[in-house]
Structure formats: C-alpha cells, structure tokens
C-alpha cells in the first residue's frame, strides 16, 4: 500500500514510482471512475512520501 512505501524504501522513497495500474483499472471502464481512482492513489502516495 502507499502507506508502506517509506518503511520499504526508507530515504529513497522520493525516487520510487509505485505501480498502481491494477488498482486504478478495476474502477473502469468509466472514465470518471478511472480519474477518481487515479486521484485517490496519487493523494495516498503523495501523503505517504511527504510524511503527512
């Protein structure tokens, strides 16, 4: 999960590009569902990387 990124990658977490395609694609094929899911994942990853 995005929350696990700092523990797994430590100080290198800012250099990580997590793969979330399956998590996003399961919210399709509706474009708005895909956009919402992508936005949620981006927010979760951003919060995990910034320590928020």
From TrEMBL:
The organism's place on the tree of life at top rank: Bacteria
Protein name: Orotidine 5'-phosphate decarboxylase
